[in-house]
Specification:
mainly alpha; 4 helices; 4% strand; globular
Length: 114
């Protein structure tokens, strides 16, 4: 089933936001010399964070609840495997507060969905 234009836009924004969060985490947690890959959002990542970024993008692309959900945390269908869920939680815990400074529009949109 194809997305409506509205859902497509929402899915794209969500992919951009999660990718920005992974990139922000990676920039502060890993040395610049390790970050030679590119995230979905275009920012530099290390190979370990690239795997997480690609996984998060894939999960967002396959989300069946995109039309009704507000955030992944509040979704009844957890589509991340347990190990990746813990990794993405750590990234979100770290990046969430810092998103307001680095990507304020994305952060405010995310907060407004709650």
């Amino acid at each position: 089933m194809e997305d409506t234009p509205k859902i497509h836009k929402k899915r794209l924004r969500e992919k951009q936001t999660i990718s920005q969060m992974v990139a922000l985490y990676c920039a502060d947690a890993h040395a610049a010399s390790e970050r030679f890959e590119r995230a979905f959002c275009g920012e530099a990542l290390c190979s370990e964070c690239l795997v997480l970024d690609e996984y998060a993008i894939k999960r967002t692309e396959r989300c069946r609840s995109m039309d009704i959900k507000t955030t992944c945390e509040e979704c009844g269908n957890h589509c991340y495997d347990p190990a990746k869920r813990e990794s993405i939680r750590a990234v979100m815990r770290y990046s969430g507060p810092r998103m307001l400074k680095k990507h304020p529009i994305a952060a405010l949109r995310h907060l407004a969905k709650r």
